[in-house]
């Protein structure tokens, strides 16, 4: 699976002046997108929410493994 990721823009969050949300665009195979949508549907989440959840889990795991340093 080939993914390209890049930031497009930053949105300030009303409740947190220091941290902002960013829009990230990814390119993925259609079959993977469909599987992600099925997973999101099963957990009653949007596609975006499901992707963020999976990414957060992977980041947390990498931090716990020592692969990356926690911020």
Quick tags:
71 residues, alpha+beta, two-stranded antiparallel ribbon, 2 helices, 2 strands, 45% helix, globular
Q: How would you describe this protein?
A:
The structure is a single chain. The chain is built from two helices and two strands, in the order ββαα. It has helices at residues 30-42, 47-65, and strands at residues 5-13, 16-26. α1 packs across α2. It has a two-stranded antiparallel sheet. It is globular, with a radius of gyration of 14 Å. Residues 33-63 form the CopG-like ribbon-helix-helix domain. This is CopG-like ribbon-helix-helix domain-containing protein.
Write the layout of secondary structure elements.
Elements lengths: L4 E9 L2 E11 L3 H13 L4 H19 L6
Protein name: CopG-like ribbon-helix-helix domain-containing protein
Organism: Anabaena subtropica FACHB-260
Tally of contiguous helical segments: 2
**Topology, number of strands:** 2
Strand order of the largest sheet: 1-2
Strand content: 25-35%
Q: What global shape is seen?
A: globular
Largest sheet: 2 strands, antiparallel
Tell me, rounded to a whole number, the average pLDDT: 84
* N-to-C span: 28 Å
Low-pLDDT segments? none
Rg measurement, Å: 14 Å
Helix/strand-derived category reads alpha+beta
**What oligomeric state do the depicted chains represent?**
single chain
Helical content (DSSP H or I, runs of 4+): 40-55%
Order of helices and strands: EEHH
In short:
The chain contains two helices and two strands.
């Amino acid at each position: 699976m080939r993914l390209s990721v890049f930031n497009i823009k930053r949105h300030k969050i009303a409740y947190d002046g220091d941290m902002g949300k960013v829009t990230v665009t990814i390119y993925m195979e259609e079959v993977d997108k469909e599987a992600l949508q099925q997973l999101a549907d099963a957990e009653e989440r949007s596609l975006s929410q499901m992707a963020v959840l999976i990414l957060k889990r992977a980041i947390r795991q990498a931090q716990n493994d020592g692969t990356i340093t926690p911020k």
